[in-house]
Design brief:
- The chain is an alpha+beta fold and 826 residues long.
- The protein contains 23 helices and 16 strands.
- Among the domains are: 31-264 and 631-643, no CATH class; 666-791, no CATH class.
- It has helices spanning 31-47, 60-79, 84-103, 116-135, 144-165, 174-188, 195-215, 219-227, 231-252, 282-286, 412-417, 438-448, 454-465, 476-479, 487-496, 501-514, 632-664, 672-686, 697-707, 716-734, 760-774, 778-786, 789-820; strands at residues 295-299, 307-315, 320-322, 330-331, 347-355, 370-374, 379-382, 389-392, 400-408, 471-472, 498-499, 519-525, 529-537, 541-548, 553-561, 565-568.
Length: 826
């Protein structure tokens, strides 16, 4: 027999479905907007972690605009009951519109409709973003190309998170989309995601879960909830597991240094990248603790050699970068000509056999200046301007080859005599940008302006950078926001006087150009360590073997002297080897620097990382770049902190509210009575009338009603509710009570045992709570609302459970030991 739908008394209307749906359509009202706000908070919070990957905060405004527009477009479409596919399509359209309005307004119709010129501009910006990723180190200047790509990616992340949370009904899976954002700084940025970005992203994720649980927007989601009870408990366990993983994973996985969040070198879950990308991974390679990318070489040279991979000579003011000069590169096969005459009386011929192992790079590490290379596999080319060797569809991995190189035997006297003007040098090596900061110009003039020759100027700059004023540090540039190689970074380095090789090499190269000396930066490996093995090389006999790895990655400046060619210097304290011609016995040097020519093999132990200071770190982004968005920083951090504190303070109240909502909407109607009784016990506990451990239901009900005073007046409904809830629980637990003509435990008009069922329990509990609040003091009411003893007591028991279990285990162990202990005879 089919039952007719129940109607709401007094209205003649059918009640809303439990799922809050109509014909499978999602509930409107507050849900779409609450979910959109939650997604926006989560994605914008995750985007905060990109600070340090991008310099400054000016990039955050277009990101914020894009995320908000896409999020609330989805909410608006869902509010008008659009079909799920139309909602998602509208999200894509809104993303395209806001990107066009922000980045392509001049080449579009009405600022919103793309044209052919728009797509041409799009290709240009994508190409610029690609060049930024490949040629710059974090933090990069937020040029329009990279910002456009980030806005597009985050807009797509909003659409993905929304699709997982609402139409697919998998709100817990939205963490995958947020994780995809957080992985980017974890792979690139040495300080990784940071506290604020992680906290706000987690807060947004919890808001998404809360909206999905509270509103139950989809009938299918509600049905799944009925089949899978305990969502709140599982969500809490999932969040706890994620937090525990965040705290414990850095202790177990190589690549993490100190702290809760990843602090170490380029974290890459898909395997270790051992290639030496000159301007992105140099600092990260130095921070790699496991020494990956091992290269071995054997040489007949009298001193250990620098292995040079690529030359960085193009400087546009924003950053240094390699110029591959693909149009002018020549096939590697015959003799390599340096392109300039060397007038030194003596040339040093060197033979070096190299095994690159797993080192993977398009550039080939060789000693300078190579004349011939034998034994390579694949096609290789060389640059006549820099002599760098690069593969064509081939890498340096698993290559074994022999290099013949030739360098002039240099001396301080020979360099001092080279004072003639420089001729036939490309402008790339002498160009000075017009936006050089004043501190750089002033420092160069002060340090080297009075010197009379290029050599004296070079020595003055090297002496200044190796002085006791400067310290070598891998962490200071990261912590102070100037870990890069642009002019603003260089200004910060000269102010802070702390950094690693790329900062020292950049400083000397720029100051040398300001003083009229052509310069460039070589990137490769500092001299390595003896392995104790020997290698037999044809025509050379047995040669000692050396090794280098990622910890030896290094950058050094090369300055051009007419008639002598490109001459390397070593301005970085405590790294590399100072050449004999650049040694100045009177120059003060930083502790640990290797200026002694009798000790040409550096210590195998890498420079220790600085001890973390107790001084608070400066705010991210203060190391240069655009400052347009810095005023936003205190507001963002303040809002994140306030949100975190508010969530923490409100968590007991939210937990208590969720527990009550679950009890008043039981999935199994048979659980309605015991759940209502449990809620009555918790209400009493919250307002100071906790049940005794041996107290019967009727005795507790009597005591609770006594707490409310005599029946009558405002408390009459509460007395009747307590009687009905108690009688219903007794009937459920013990069977029907004996009929009673009157008295306190009468069935209240024939409704005993049924009053706790259905919607009546909600009204009875509300009446009981109203009376308890009326009879409580203000502190008691505040405690019941924000620190309910029923919740705090459970939390205390959960925290104490491991200690109680440990105590019981110790007691059992002690008792067993006492029993097995031999009894001493009298």
């Amino acid at each position: 027999m089919t039952m007719a739908p129940a109607r709401t008394p007094g209205t003649g209307k059918q009640p809303a479905s439990p799922a809050g749906t109509s014909a499978g359509r999602p509930r409107v009202g507050a849900f779409p907007w609450a979910m959109a706000a939650s997604i926006a908070v989560a994605v914008c919070g995750a985007a905060l972690s990109l600070n340090g990957v991008l310099r400054g905060w000016a990039w955050y405004w277009p990101v914020l605009t894009t995320v908000l527009v896409v999020s609330f477009t989805l909410a608006a479409l869902r509010a008008v009951r659009a079909q799920p596919l139309l909602v998602t399509a509208g999200g894509f359209l809104s993303l395209g519109a806001i990107l066009t309005l922000t980045f392509f307004r001049g080449s579009s119709l009405l600022g919103l409709i793309p044209t052919g010129a728009t797509f041409t501009e799009l290709q240009r910006l994508v190409r610029r973003a690609s060049e930024t990723v490949l040629a710059e180190t974090a933090p990069v200047a937020p040029n329009v190309g990279i910002v456009m790509v980030i806005c597009a990616v985050l807009g797509l992340a909003v659409i993905l998170v929304d699709a997982l949370a609402v139409p697919l009904g998998m709100p817990a899976a939205t963490g995958v989309g947020l994780l995809a954002i957080l992985v980017v700084p974890a792979m690139i940025k040495p300080q990784s995601v940071g506290f604020f970005g992680f906290t706000v992203a987690v807060a947004g994720y919890l808001m998404i879960l809360a909206c999905s649980q509270w509103f139950a927007p989809d009938a299918r989601t509600q049905a799944d909830s009925a089949r899978n009870p305990g969502q709140v408990r599982r969500a809490a366990l999932t969040g706890s597991a994620a937090l525990a993983a965040t705290l414990l994973v850095p202790l177990a996985i190589p690549g993490f240094d100190q702290g809760t969040f990843p602090q170490g070198s380029r974290l890459n879950p898909w395997g270790t990248s051992t290639g030496l990308n000159p301007m992105i991974t140099l600092g990260n390679s130095l921070r790699t603790p496991d020494g990956s990318g091992r290269i071995t070489y054997a040489t007949n040279a009298s001193v250990p050699l620098y292995l040079r991979s690529v030359t960085v000579d193009h400087f546009d003011g924003e950053s240094w970068g390699p110029d591959d000069r693909n149009a002018s590169r020549l096939p590697l096969g015959g003799r390599i000509d340096p392109g300039y005459a060397v007038l030194a009386d003596e040339q040093l011929q060197q033979v070096t056999a190299i095994d690159t192992g797993t080192f993977t790079s398009p550039y080939l590490p060789v000693p300078y200046a190579p004349e011939t290379v034998r034994g390579l596999d694949g096609r290789w080319t060389w640059d006549p301007a820099t002599l760098s060797i690069k593969g064509t569809d081939v890498s340096s991995r698993r290559q074994e080859y022999v290099v013949t190189s030739s360098v002039p035997k240099l001396s301080a006297g020979l360099l001092a005599q080279s004072s003639s003007g420089v001729r036939d040098i490309p402008d790339d090596f002498t160009r000075v940008p017009g936006n050089v900061p004043e501190i750089v110009r002033t420092t160069a003039g002060t340090v080297a302006g009075s010197a009379s020759s290029p050599y004296e100027k070079a020595m003055a700059i090297q002496r200044f950078l190796r002085s006791a004023e400067f310290t070598y540090s891998l962490q200071s540039p990261v912590q102070n926001g100037y870990d890069g190689n642009g002019l603003s970074v260089l200004a910060d380095f000269l102010d802070q006087k702390s950094g690693y090789c790329i900062h020292y090499a950049s400083a000397m190269a720029v100051m040398a150009r300001l003083e009229g000396i052509p310069s460039r930066i070589a990137v490769g490996y500092a001299p390595g360590r003896l392995t104790g093995a020997t290698v037999t090389v044809a025509g050379q006999g047995t040669l000692p073997e050396f090794e280098v790895d990622a910890r030896d990655a290094h950058a050094w400046p090369e300055l051009y002297f007419q008639g002598l060619g490109w001459v390397p210097f070593e301005p970085t304290p405590s790294r590399g080897v100072v050449p004999e011609y650049a040694t100045d016995s009177s120059a003060p040097t930083a502790p640990g620097s290797l200026d002694n020519n009798d000790d040409l093999i550096p210590d195998a132990t890498p420079a220790p990382a600085p001890v973390p200071s107790a001084t608070p770190l400066p705010a991210p982004g203060t190391g240069g770049g655009s400052d347009d968005g810095l005023q936003l920083l205190p507001w963002l951090f303040g809002a994140g902190g306030v949100l975190g504190v508010a969530l923490l303070a409100a968590s007991p109240h939210l937990v208590r509210t969720a527990i009550r909502a679950r009890r008043l909407r039981p999935r199994d109607p048979g659980d309605a009575v015991p759940l209502a009784w449990t809620e009555m016990l918790d209400l009493g506990t919250d307002y100071g009338v906790a049940p005794g451990s041996s107290e019967t239901p009727r005795a507790y009900s009597t005591r609770l009603r006594g707490h409310l005073g005599e029946p009558g007046g405002m408390d009459e409904a509460a007395h009747r509710a307590a009687v009905a809830l108690t009688a219903g629980f007794e009937r459920h637990r013990f069977g029907p009570p004996p009929p009673s003509a009157g008295g306190q435990d009468a069935d209240d008009g024939g409704r005993t045992g049924t009053g706790a069922k259905g919607g009546a329990a909600s009204g009875q509990l509300a009446a009981l709570e109203l009376a308890l609040r009326a009879n409580a003091t203000l502190p008691q009411r505040l405690r019941a609302a924000w620190l309910p003893p029923s919740v705090m007591g459970r939390l205390g028991r959960i925290i104490a459970a491991p200690f109680r279990a440990a105590g019981r285990a110790l007691a059992v162990t002690a008792k067993a030991a006492a029993r097995s202990w031999p009894v001493r005879s009298r």
